[in-house]
Fold these 2 entries.
Entry 1:
Amino acid sequence: MSLWPGAQLPDLAGKTAIVTGANSGIGYYTALELARAGADVVLACRNPEKGEAAVARINAEAPGRARFGQLDLADFAAVHEFAGRFKEAHGALDILINNAGVMAPPVRRTTAQGFELQFGVNFLGHFLITALLLTPLMSAKAPRVVQVSSVAHRRGHIAFSDLQSERRYRRWKAYEQSKLAMLIFALELQRRSDAGGWGLLSLAAHPGIAATELFANGPGADSPMARLTRLGAPFIRQSAAAGAWPLILAATAPDAAPGAYYGPEGLLEFRGPPSIAKARPKARDPEVGAHLWDVAEMLTGEALKPAPQPRRAIRRDDPSTLAGCMAGPDPAGPAPLVTPPPAQTWADALPASHAHGR
Ligand SMILES: NC(=O)c1ccc[n+]([C@@H]2O[C@H](COP(=O)([O-])OP(=O)(O)OC[C@H]3O[C@@H](n4cnc5c(N)ncnc54)[C@H](OP(=O)(O)O)[C@@H]3O)[C@@H](O)[C@H]2O)c1
């Protein structure tokens, strides 16, 4: 299936979506199209002024569909606050698009918790928000999570011995690592959902090369790489609106395959109509996926797995329980309440090879 501007999206009325970093660039156009298709969209942005301005622009085209939610992915406390507010206000989350990102700041910067900014915002912040929103996701009928990667993942390497670029900061290497981590995360999430029966569709997408604020916010609008991209723009770059389509396809395509990765279909996947993209084999390695997941759980302090089922007291004489069926009603009167052994958790149902961090 190939979608392009003007194509008909499925009707998203009644669905709730979150798009991180939706005040500009491809996140904005993704949120706009989801809202136009009828979804209620939360624009999860760190800057209230920019976020509210984007909400107003979207609501002018799709009245009442967009709202702002404050989220700074560079601070785990803020991520917890955002997730808490969302859970208070909503029952289910149908679509989570982990789009926000920062690229190649010239000097090494860190998050509130001291992680290298690109690894911390692009990957760890999104790992944490996904973990905290897993319950609302699993309350939706057909939940989807989309991680935004990049063609830069191809040159990426997960440097487990120096994930935070403490020994040496190479800004492009750190960006490539964060974008490879996002693709690995998408594929590992699908593996875990399949193994544990979580019912998630986990997907990834990249925009090719799109004209957004990414250069200005990172290496600088006058950096050599930004100038080079501007020079080759007519051949290698597309608009931010066009760059959003692989994300929109991942979020809505009725025939999306579990773990699919979308990107532009043109030369080197830089531009063009959205289609299936190529993930490098290193992104598909399940051992690396499992290890990165363990590390992310450790660094965020949050296990990404379904919450244990609540304990439920049962009565021996309750015919709806196995004990009740076998024993039948007790003529001596109701039996005392008994507490069952702790309910089996979703994680207990995972094969040992997937039961990490327990
Ligand atoms: N443009 C491309 O050619 C390209 C290519 C490959 C992949 N990508 C990926 O596409 C995604 C979107 O980027 P874009 O190109 O649309 O660039 P953009 O216009 O700069 O948008 C990035 C968004 O992320 C937000 N953000 C940055 N740090 C944040 C934080 N700590 N907490 C919350 N939000 C934060 C920004 O908010 P502020 O406005 O407040 O800074 C902005 O809304 C990124 O993940 C990027 O890696 C882009």
Entry 2:
Amino acid sequence: MKILAALALGLLAMRSGGAQEFKFDNWKAWDSFKEGSSVEFEIETSGMKMTMIKTLDKKEKEEITLKNRTKMKVGDSEIDNTTEEKVKKTESTGGEDVTCPLCEKPAKDHKDTGKWSDEKVKVGEQEVKCKLYESPEKACNGETVPKTKIWYSSDVPGHMVKMETEQMKMTAVKFEVKK
Ligand SMILES: [Zn+2]
């Protein structure tokens, strides 16, 4: 639950962010790239390691289809599973009517207590300029939140480069931009 709270805060911070900050929008994160663009993540959680490759499969006017391929070694065998993810344009409405799940204030009145900074991150051979979001120690409702860090870059398909919580690490190791 606490992880979710931290993520919710991160999302609100993104949505209510000022000029300096990065506004994450799942539609734009993919719509600004051509079909075939992809990003590969390494995910580590509770001692397990897996690879996830997100590929922009199809672009339509109101909908983008992503193919998410997950690969994981279990003993001697490898699990290789591909699922589809739909990103709808209608989700891209900004954060005006979104309320904070913790203090129930609308996003526009919400005080962003997270921290933003610039950081360069190496993704494979490429250096990517990122906006780093760090969750505050205490949430808006006074509750302690576990540290969450999220790196974003508009150069990378999907815009997310890295995410770290106490339990989970997700790192882009490769990306390909089709023009
Ligand atoms: Zn709040």
